[in-house]
Structures are given as structure tokens and as C-alpha cells.
Design goal:
With about 80 residues, the protein is mostly helical. Helix content is about 55%, strand content about 0%. It is globular and about 45 Å long. It is a single-pass membrane protein.
Length: about 80
């Protein structure tokens, strides 16, 4: 199964949207947050807040891994 975009459970400030995007692209979450703020400030009518709210509602939260799932990953090696 391919790579999926999820909200981050570990790297979150508000809802984990920017942390999830950073994890998806394997980059620093602080950089993603800074770029988001800069692009939002220079866009017309500051739609960044609306986009963030939509993303927070649309992007699912990362599923929790059960203890059984994490043990089975290690048993494969």
C-alpha cells in the first residue's frame, strides 16, 4: 500500500496538520510551518486560516499502532 498523509500524533502545535505534512515529505515541521505562515501572509485576504481548518477536518489522524502490530514488525527481521 502506498504512502498516506495523516495528521501527526507526535509533532503537533494545534491539530497536527503541518507536522503530518512534514512527516509525509520527510522534512522539518518547523520549516513547513514557517513556509505556511509566509505564503499565508502574502496571499490575498489571508485564506491560510480557512485552508488550515479545511485540512484539519479532511486529513485523518494517524491510526494508533497496537502493541501486537509493533511486535509483529520486529518479528519479521
Amino acid at each position: 500500500m502506498g504512502k498516506r498523509l495523516y495528521k501527526s500524533r507526535d509533532n503537533k502545535m494545534i491539530s497536527g496538520v503541518m507536522g503530518g505534512i512534514a512527516e509525509y515529505f520527510n522534512i522539518d515541521a518547523t520549516l513547513v510551518r514557517i513556509l505556511y505562515v509566509v505564503f499565508s501572509m502574502f496571499s490575498a485576504a489571508f485564506p491560510g486560516i480557512v485552508v488550515y481548518i479545511i485540512l484539519a477536518m479532511v486529513i485523518p489522524e494517524r491510526p494508533r499502532q497496537s502493541k501486537h502490530d509493533s511486535e509483529s514488525e520486529w518479528s519479521e527481521f
